[in-house]
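G., the chain you wanted modeled:
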Amino acid sequence: MSNNILKLKNRKPNISNKNIYTRFSILIPLIIESDNPELLFEIRSENLKSQPNEICFPGGRIEKGEDELTAAIRETTEELCLKPQNINIIGPSDTLITPFNYIIYTYIGILNNYEYTYNGEVNEVFTVPLSYFMSKNPECYYINVDLKPDLSFPYYLIQNGKSYKWGKGKYPVCFYKYKDKIIWGITARIIHDFVTILKEKE
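Predicted structure as tokens:
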């Protein structure tokens, strides 16, 4: 037992209870053709069952046996009709964990020789100068997150039973307004995290 404990010395931490989450991987795609890089966005097809017509980055669910970076590249090549060699991965941005059991891994990548192609999951693509996000803070609002145990919860095992005071939280929902486009939700959170990292490196 003591030997096993010592083996933990160089262990890298994981995410607790990871198996309860649905895992997604996203690419933050940059187009650098001038001194002012641009971020590329998709508008999802109106025919999709999930989040039709919403603005997002390329990405999707991580498949069984697939690592996070491979998933981000696969989803991007499928959605933007690109070859993997046309994506220059810079590195990871921050990982987002939501109250509704999503883990979203994000990677920063430069698109090379991209001709603004896309598949049937995408209705349109457009770009926004990175400088816009560097100079503008998003508008953020908050949704209250309350814990509500299900009917089978064993209240008799805890102090004060059904009167126990559960913790509460707030979930931020952010918005960027660029011309006629509203970029919001998880995509806006990812942008804000990415821009914060860039500003820390200045």
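The two ends are 47 Å apart (CA to CA).

Shout if anything looks off.
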